[in-house]
Amino acid sequence: MSKPLAPGKVAALGLQHVLAMYAGAVVVPLIIGGALGLTEKQIAYLIAADLFTCGLATLLQVIGSRWFGSRLPVVLGCTFTAVGPMIVIGSEYSLAAVYGAIIVSGLFVVLAAPLYGKLLRFFPTVVTGSVVTIIGLSLIPVAMNNVAGGQGAADFGAPRNLLLALLTLVVILIVSRFARGFLRAVAVLVGLAVGTGAAYAMDMVHFGGVAEASFVNVPTPFYFGAPQFSLVAIGTMILVNIVSMVESTGVYLAVGKATDQKVEQRQIVNGLRSEGAAIMLGGVLNAFPYTAFSQNVGLIQLTKVKTRNVIFAAGGIMVLLGLLPKLAALTTVIPNAVLGGAMIVMFGSVAAAGMNILSEVDLRKEGNLMIVACSLAVGLGSATVPSMFAQLPTEASMLLQSGIVTGSVTAIVLNLVMTRRRESAAAFQEAGEAS
Q: Does this model's pTM top 0.90?
C-alpha cells in the first residue's frame, strides 16, 4: 500500500492486531488469578490492568526515543514464561512478593540491555533463522489446542469446534487469495467475524460477561498492597526476563525480515530497555512482565501492512480496553475454536518467516546443518512433550518446557562450538601451508 491509510482503516488494522494477541493477553491473568484464588473482581482488575499496560508498553515501543523503544511495528504482551514462576512465588510467598520481584527484574532488564546488545554477534543468520522458526513451530500446539476448543474445555475436540476453526481458516484463505487492497489486509478480522457469527448461530457465543463488566476502570498503583522483596523471587523473575530477552530478540529480527529492514543493535537494545520499563510499570500497576509478541509478526507477514501507525492504533485500542472493561469483555465472546483457526495462519507465517531466513544459510557448510537440525528438534520436542522435564526442580522444569528457550540456547551453544571448530581447522590448515 503506497498511499497513506485512512484513519478508519488504520483503526481496523490495529483492532485486528489486538484480536490476534488478545487471547494471550487475557489468558495469563485468568490462569494466575485462578491459581492464586483471587476473586472475580480481582481477576477482572488484572485483565483490565494488563490490557492498559500492554497498550502503554506497545506505544512506548513504537514511538521510541533516544534510549527507549525500537521504533519497530512490535506489539508487547505478557510473557507466558512468567506464568509458572509467578504462581509459585505467589503461593510460597505472597502476591506482593510477585510484584516486588517484577519491579526489580524490570530494572535489571533496563540496565542489562546494553550489555546484552554486545552479545548479538552470537546471533548470525543460522541462529536467528533457527530461533524464528522455533518461535513459530512452538506456537503451533497453542493454535491446535484452541482449534479443539481450548485446553481443559468440556467440549475439547468436539466436531463443532473443529468445524468453526476450519470455517475461520477457509474464510481467511479465500479473502487473502481473492480480495484486494484493504479487504485483503483485514482477512484475519473477516475470518474472526464470520467464525464468531457462525458460532452465535450455534449458540456458542454468550454475552453474560459483557453485562457483568463495569463501564470504567482506572488501574490503581499497588492495587494489591505495597510490593515485598524476596531474593529468591527476584532471582527467579530475573532469570525469566533473561529468557524473554532472547525471545524478543528473535521477534525483533523476524519483524525486520517481515518489514524488509535490517534491525540494528541499537534498536534491539532500545527495544529491550522499553520492555524493562514496561515490566516495571506492570509491577506498579499489578500487571505482568512484558515481551514482544510473536503472534503479531505472522499478521504482518500475512497482511503485508508494515506501517507503525497500525501498531500505534493497536496500542491505543488496548489502553481504551483497559479503561473500559465492558468494551474489553465484548472481545472475549470470540470462541477459542475461531481464534484457533486464525492462529494456524498467523503462527504458521512466523515459522515460514524463519524458514525464509534459513534459506540464506548454506547448509552444506560444516556445522550449519547440525545447528539447524538440533535446535529445531530440541525446541519443538520441548514444546510438544513438556512433561519430559516434570521430575526436574520446579524452576528448571518451567524454563526447559519452553521450546523457544531450549531451541535458542541449543542454536547459540552449537554455533559457538562449530564456529570455534571451523576457526581451529582453518588455523591448522594455514599453519600447514606455511610450513
A: no
